[in-house]
């Protein structure tokens, strides 16, 4: 497939930090899977990550040559510089995927200001700063597609982390603003709202044993795969979704459609 031949994509959070799945040589996170999928369909991909080596590992496995850039999502200057590097490398930006995020573990009763601030900086501010930096050259060309990688925690409460839930909800508001404000000038913005995905981050944060407990609340009876998240992103940035903007595509195995929470699958 070559849906994205001649297009340039920037994936913020395209490295991977966490244990690999059984039989996996390259630990697969959502951002890495997205970068690999876009490159497999012909895009020139620039991969940003806080740790350059993680971005470089992704680039080494791309189907077409790409670029790794170091970016600290908590640093506004770094966010802008990474977009500038992507533009300089590709000469244009057609696709921007904002995937970086931090999970929190503090409910309201013990929510700390420090945890709230870093979650806001990474989960929301880095996304709108990245979009802002990429927007002007897209407007000049009259086209561009953004995808924000969100979470069901931004739509439904897990009762677990106030900062994560609040910032993931705010992330969707950023997406809607971009979509509505600039729709008439050729810009599209959407989000994938992910449920339980067996990503490197999830395995690092919640354990790398087979996710039977995590899968037990999913009607499909299993965790999703980063490659499935990547497939949803690839659709949203493709011409196949040319009339789709301002939408939150739920990729959650049916969790959001179920009431009450499904029982454990025996």
What does this 3D model show about the protein?
This protein has a single domain, classed as NAD(P)-binding Rossmann-like Domain (Rossmann fold), CATH 3.40.50.720. 41% of the residues lie in helices and 15% in strands. It has a seven-stranded parallel sheet, with helices on both faces. Helix 1 crosses helix 8 and helix 3 runs parallel beside helix 4. The radius of gyration is 17 Å and the shape is globular. The protein starts with 7 loop residues before the first strand and ends in a 15-residue tail after the last strand. The model has no long low-confidence stretch (mean pLDDT 92). Pfam families: adh_short_C2. It comes from Actinophytocola xinjiangensis.
Radius of gyration computed on alpha carbons: 17 Å
CA(first)-CA(last) distance: 39 Å
Number of strands: 7
What is the CATH H-level superfamily?
Answer: NAD(P)-binding Rossmann-like Domain
Question: How is the topology of this model organized?
Answer:
Layout: E1 8-12, H1 30-40, E2 44-49, H2 52-60, E3 67-70, H3 76-90, E4 95-98, H4 113-141, E5 144-151, H5 162-182, E6 187-194, H6 200-206, H7 212-215, H8 226-237, E7 248-251
Parallel strand pairs: 1-2, 1-4, 2-3, 4-5, 5-6, 6-7
